[in-house]
Amino acid sequence: MGLVREEKGPHGDIAVDIEDLTRTFGDFVAVDHVSLTVKRGEIFGFLGPNGAGKSTTIKMLCGLLMPSGGSGSVGGYDIIRQSEEIKRTIGYMSQRFSLYDDLTVEENIDFFSGIYGVPAERKGERKERVLEMAELGRRRTDLTRTLPGGIKQRLALGCAILHEPPIIFLDEPTSGVDPVSRRNFWDLIYGMSRAGTTTFVTTHYMDEAEYCDRLGLIYRGRLIALGAPAELKADHMKRDVIEIETDRTIEAMDALHAHNIESAIFGSSLHATVEDGGKAIPLIRGILGDARIEFRGVGKITPSLEDVFVNLIEEA
Q1: Rounded to an integer, what is the distance from CA 297 to the centroid of its chain?
Q2: DSSP code of 37?
Q3: If both were cysteines, with which of 22, 56, 163, 291 could 116 make a disulfide (CB 3.0 to 4.6 Å apart)?
Q4: Alpha carbons 119 and 99: distance in angstroms, whole number
Q5: Of 234, 257, 285, which residue constitutes the final position of a domain?
Q6: pLDDT tens, the chain, 316 aa long
Q7: Residues with Cβ < 8 Å from 146, sequence gap 6 or more?
C-alpha cells in the first residue's frame, strides 16, 4: 500500500502541516514518511494500536523529539528550527496527565501557570476557570494523588490550557479512565473546538475516533488512511460485514477460517468480512450448523471504524 498524502490548503487555514515526517531509532523505523495537515479549529484524531508511532509523532510535533527526516510546522513554526516557539504556543497533555501527585490541586495549577508564563494579573481568573471546569472548587487543597482518574484527567487538561493555546496536543488522554469520564472529557474538547481551538489527539479507542472531525490511521509507523469517519467507512470498506452472535466465538472463527472466511472477534460477537453478504449469510449459517455451534443471529451490519481498521491492516 502506498503512502497516504493529501492536498495542502492555504497556510493561514492550517494549524499543523507535516511532510514525509520520519523518526528512526537505530534500525527501527518508528514513524515512516508521514504527511498530513490539520486545519485550524479541527479535532484531528490519530488512531492506531499501541506501538504504531502515535506518541513518537506527537512528540516531534510538540518539539520534544527531533525528526530523523522530513519537515513540518505547528502554528506556523518550524518543528526543527523553532521548537521553543512551538512549546510556548501549544498545550500538551500526556497519557500520564503530567501532574505532580505530591502537590495539591491548587499548587499544580499555580505551577503550570508559571511554566506557561500566564500574566500575574490573570492567574487568579485562569485558576478559577480550571477549578470550575474540573469541578474541583471544593477540593483545591486536596493532594492530586487522591483524585479519581476522571477528575484528575480534567485537571490535567485545565493545566494544559491555562495559557489559552490555539493548538492542543492530547496523547492518549483517556487511557485508564471510565467510559463516563471519557464522554465528559470529550464534551470539554467539543467546547474548546467550537471556540476555535485546534485539537490533535492520539487514541486507540475506536469509539472515540467517531468524535473526531477527521482521522489519520497509522500502523507500523505508516499512515494507511486519512479522512472523516464517514469517508473512511465509505472509501475503505468495499466488502460486507456479517455479525455473528454466539457464545462460542473462538470455535466459530476457527470454523469460518477453515472455509476461507475472514473473521475477527468484536466484543461478544464475531464479524466476518465477505464479498457478498446475501450469499454469505446462508453459507455461514450452514458452516456453524455443521460444526454444531449455536448462534443467536447472523446478519449484515453497517461497518464500524474498527471493521475498517482491521480491513486496512489486513491489506497493509
Answers
A1: 32
A2: E
A3: 163
A4: 21
A5: 234
A6: 444 545 444 346 899 999 999 999 999 999 999 999 999 999 999 998 888 999 999 999 999 999 999 999 999 999 999 999 999 899 998 866 578 999 999 999 999 999 888 999 999 999 998 898 888 889 999 999 999 888 888 898 889 889 999 999 998 887 777 788 788 888 888 888 988 999 999 988 888 888 899 999 999 999 999 999 989 988 888 788 999 999 999 999 999 999 999 898 888 899 998 989 999 999 999 999 999 999 999 999 888 888 888 888 877 7
A7: none
Residues 175 and 228 in one domain: yes
Of the candidates 234, 265, 281, which is a domain's last residue?
A: 234
Residue 1, in any domain of the structure? no
Amino acid in the structure at residue 85: E
Based on the fold, state whether residues 50 and 179 are members of the same structural domain. Answer: yes
Range of the domain at 82: 11-234
Inter-residue contact 13 to 168 (CB < 8 Å): no
Q: Same structural domain for residues 118 and 131?
A: yes
| The residue to which cell 466484543 is assigned | 267
Q: How far is CA 245 from the centre of its chain?
A: 28
**Structure letter (DSSP) for residue 104:** B
Predicted TM-score (pTM) of the model is 0.81
